[in-house]
Structures
1.
Amino acid sequence: MGLAALAVVTANLVMLAALKTWAPPDEALPGPVRGASTAPAATPSKLAPATADASRQDLNGVADIIKSPRGGSILVVGDGSGDEMDEWVSVWARDHLAGQATVSYNAWNWTSGRYADPVTFGSASRSLRVWNASVRTPDMAREPDRVVRAWQEADVVLLSYGHRRSATEIPAQLDAVLEAVRAKSQTASVVVLIQNPERARTEAIQQETTQAIKKWADAKGFPTVDIYSAFTGDPSPRDGLVEVDGSPTPQGSRLWAETVADALAAPPAR
C-alpha cells in the first residue's frame, strides 16, 4: 500500500473513533413530556399509610353510627367463629357495647330458621340491637338466601368469614353475600373482619384466605378490622387463643371482642 493510501485509511479510522465517542450536548437531549410528573413512582409501602388513614376514617364513621344518641342496629353475618354465647359477638355486646347502651342481643337459630328470644345486656338510656346471624360452617352456596332470611333493618353490617374457606373461592362467595345484603339495604355501612390465624397445621391456608378477603374488602372500599394481627401480636401461646378447628377459645374470643371494640370506638372529642 502506498503512503498516500495509508494516510487516507488512517484519517478514516480517526474520524470513526471520534463519532463513536461523541455525545450530543445537554440541550439536544429529549426532556420530560410537558405536564408529566418527574417524581418517582410511589411504592406500596409509601401508599400504605394513606390507605390505613382512609380505613380509619371509615371506621370512625361506623363508630359514630354505633354511638349515635338515637341508638342503632348491628347485623353480624358470618361463620362459627362468633355463633356461641362465649364467642366474640356476644362478648362484644355484653362487655363493651353494654357499657354505654342497653343492648338487645339476638342470636340466629339455624335449626328453627329464626332468631331466639333476645337477651338484654346493660341498662343505659340509649339502645342498641345486635342481630347475630353467625352459624357454624355455613354453606356458602346457600348463604345469600340465608342472609335474606336472617335480615333485620341494620345501620351496620359486619361480615366475618374465612375459616375452612378457599382463597380462590372466597371473593366470589363474598360477592354473593354482599349482593344479598345490598338487595335488602343500599345504605347500611359494611365492615369486613379479617379473621384470626389458625394453629400450625392449617395456618398457611388460613393466611392465604385472610389475605384474599382483605384484598376483596379493599377493592370494594370497605373498612376492615384486623383480628389476624391482633392474634399474632398477642404474646399468649397460639393454642390458648385458637381451638383445633380454628375458632377462637374463650380467651381468643375476648381478644377478638376487644379488637372490634377498639376499632369501632368513636375517636375522642377535640
2.
Amino acid sequence: MFDYGCDMSSASAEPVAESTAPTVGGLTETEVLDRVGECARTWQRMGAELLALAYEWAIAHPADRLDPTESGKPGRERAKLYGGEGTPEVTEFAAATFGARMGRGTHAGRRHISAALDLKLRLPNLWSRVQALEVRDTYAIHVAEATRNLSAAEAAWVDGEVAESADGRIPWTRFQTLVAGKVTAAAPHLAREREERAARARFAKKLTPLPGDQAAGMATFMIRAPLPIIDALDAAITTLASRIERTLPATVTEAEDAPTTDDLRVHAVALLAGGFATDAGSDAGSDLPHCTDLDLAELDLRDLLPHTTLVVHLYGGTSHTDPETGDQITVPPGRDHDETGQPLDHVARIDGHGAVSETWLREVLGPRAHFQVLPVLDIDGLAPVDAYEIPTRHRRAVQLRHPVETFPWGAAISTSSHVQLDHEEPWQPPGPEQPHGQTRVDNLGPLHSFHHRLKTHGGWQVREPFPGIHLWRDPHGHTYLRDATGTRALPSTPGEAACRTTATVVEIYPGRAVELVDDLGPAGWAA
C-alpha cells in the first residue's frame, strides 16, 4: 500500500504558486504533464479494446462458417490456425478486413487476431491484466508471439512467470530478455533445437551491396560464429589496436583528427589480413603506415589472444525451510519436468549474450574453457570506506545487486562503460562533522552518464531507504518507486507540483525516515 500526499505546513519555504509556472500553449508545465498521462492511459485503453474486438472478430469467423465443398477449390478461402496450440481455426480472409478497418494491412490484422486468440485462450493472466488496463497491448502481443510454438502447458507457465513484469515496470529491452529466458526455460528442447540450427548457420563473408546503394568505397565483412570464437576475435583486435595506438607519436594522437577507437580497430584487422595497416579512406589514418612499426611476420599471434572471460550465471534453486520438519529444502529453478514427467534441461545466462541451455555450456564451452566457480558475494557484509574512490569489491557488489541502472525505467547495463556509480547521498570530504563510511553499497547506485547529470544538475532527487529500493522524485513533484521488479509511478494527487518544497510522505512498510533537501527548501520523505 502506498500513501502519497503533500503537507503545506512547511514554514521554511513558500510553495511555488501554480500561476508562476511557465506556460506551454496556454497550459502550465504541470497541466502538460497531466495531459501526457491522460493520453497515455487513453492509448492503453484503446489497445486493450482493439485486442478484445480482434478476439470477437475471430470468434465470428470460425472454420465451420466455410462451405466444405467450396473451400477445397483453388483460390477459395480456407480456414487457418492463427494462434498456438489450443486455439481454433479462423477463416483466412477475416484478417484482411480487420486490418483494413484498423487502417493497416493484412499482416497487422492477422497479428492482432493471432495475439487475441493466444492471450484469451493460452495466456489468461496477461489477458486479464490487459483488459484491466494494467498491461499495454504491445507487451502482451510480444509474449503471445514468443510463445506461439510452445505447448499450451508451456505457454501457461510463461504466462505466470512474466505477467507481473508486463505492466511496463521494466524497460522494453529488459522485458524482451525476460521473455526470451522464460521461453527457453519453458521448452529447453526447442531452445536446444534453435542452438543446433544456429551452430550450422555459421559464415564469414563479404556482404554484397544492394542495387542502388552508394557504398562510397566502403564495404562490410560479416562473421557469424559461436560466442567463444567471436569473443576471442574481439579480444585479439582490441589488443592489436591498443598496440598500434602505443606506437603512434603525440603529433597523431593529440591531433584534432586523431584516429578513433574504431579507426584503430579497423587498422588492426588490416594488419592481421595483409601485414600492414592502411586505410585510404581515412585522413586520420593516413599517417599510420609510416608510424606503425608492428610487423606481422615478427608478431606471435598467440600474444594477441589474451584470456577472455565469460560470466555465466547458474541458478541452483531457492532454499526454503520445511515448515513441518525444519529441514532446508531446495526448490529447483524453472520447470524441472515437462507435462509428461520427463526431466528438462536447465537454463544458464551469459552476461551480454542471454539465455543458453546447460547442454550448450557443456558441448561448446566445456572442451575449450576453464571454469572458475565463484561463491555468492556477501553484499551486506562489505565494510564501508571513507574514500571517494570506489573499491573493486564494492563496485562488483553494486553491479550484482543492480544489473541495470537505478533510474526510473533505466535500461543501461550496470557494467557498461557509459554507466557510472553515483553516491546517492553526495560524498563530502572527511571531517569532524562528516559521517564515516560514505562509500558503501547502500549509498551507491549505477546510473547512465546522462541520468547521472540529470540527478546532479536537473533537479531530480533519490533516496535508498532500504537496500535495493529507490525513491525518485522529478522536478515537478512526481514520485517513482524503483526496485528489483522494475519501476512504478506512485499515485499522485492534484496540485502535486505546488507541493514540491513541502513534505511528501510515502508509506512502504515500517522503517526509517528519509530526508530530502533541494534548492527550493527542505522536503521530507518518510518510509
